[in-house]
Specification:
The structure holds 2 protein chains of 2 kinds. By secondary structure, chain A is mainly α. Chain A has 7 helices and 2 strands; from the N terminus they run βααααααβα. In chain A, 58% of the residues lie in helices and 3% in strands. Chain A is elongated. The N and C termini of chain B lie far apart (66 Å). Chain B has helices at residues 5-23, 30-56, 61-75, 106-129, 132-153. Chain B is mainly α. The chains are: A mainly alpha, B mainly alpha.
Amino acid sequence: MCGVFPGKTPPPRRAYVWDLPTRLFHWALVCCVAIAFVTAKLGGNWMAWHGRVGVLIVALLVFRLAWGFVGPTYARFMHFLPTPRALRDYLQGRWQAQGHNPLGALSVFALLGVLCLQAGSGLFSDDDVAFAGYLAPLVAKATSDRLTFAHRLGEEVLLALVALHVGAIAFYALVKKRNLVAPMITGWAEGRPEESTRGGGVKPFLLAFCLALAAAYGASGAWLPPPPAPAAAEW
Amino acid sequence: MRKHPIAVLFGSFVAVALSGIASAQVVGKVEDQIRWRQSAYQTMAWSMQRIKANVEGTFNKDQVTQAANVIAALANAGMGALYQPGSDHGRGWRETNVKPEFFKEGEKVRELAQAFNREANEMAKVAAAGDAAAVKAQFGKLGESCKACHEKFRKEEK
């Protein structure tokens, strides 16, 4: 697959595919989504953490969306658009490139999309017990109720997508004998060095990071005016 | 004057029938039951918000006690009587959110309701003692008991 190199000493057959910010994003997102899931199940005072980790997820998603435009080669959305042609090539075994394969790309876009909807709806949700998303005060209760319902549906969709994602990785490991986890940890995958990811320096990183911070601030509702002090009531 | 046996029998029938009616008296039409239970939950929601505000902001023991007592009073009010057969559908302030399973799984409902009662009464006790940290912890447990029933028996689409 990687071509035959003439000469006696084979060059290193690996390429740097996943840059550090992309990897950090990935594993941070895994942790945050796991925490969000568990705290939602525990309920009670754990819901406060559900809200906090939700804001962190908003920041991570905004970072990744920005990184998909200004990041290095394989992090860019334009690089792994799952076009019908790419999908056909892949399914017929003609696709050969680094980065997300077209099916994997579908999974990436689906996960990112559903997570954005989850995080967005969560900000306006209200569990009618003792917790509401930080931006719930901005919308009417009926709107909040609808978004809460969407948030609960989204949980099921997300679980299914995560199962599919993990299942695909297991399929690659067991059937196709290809380890997809190690590259997401180390950044290195089988391939030619010249295929390594390029671009995405410090400036683009700072840009994405600042956008993420701004999103977190927006999602936290810290900018909302505090509720007025109650009028004194003697009864 | 001795009563005729038939009269005694008849009299006891009437007494049994009357007492039967008294103990099985359903108060309110289905739409009333639904509206009252929705009102009760909204009142609890108000009280939960009050406790939450006190736990997260400045703690005021009197407010917390008022709110906890309201929740405990409603928990002890016998609201089970507002879930008569046939009240799985209907409109109070709006369409009821109760799932039909609620009326089929009596044992589970009782278990969840009793857990809520326990936590609500404990909440009132803890509130009266006035320790903010204990109030926060008990508030969490109370919320969990609300959620446990919502997860099982409350429709989310509205």
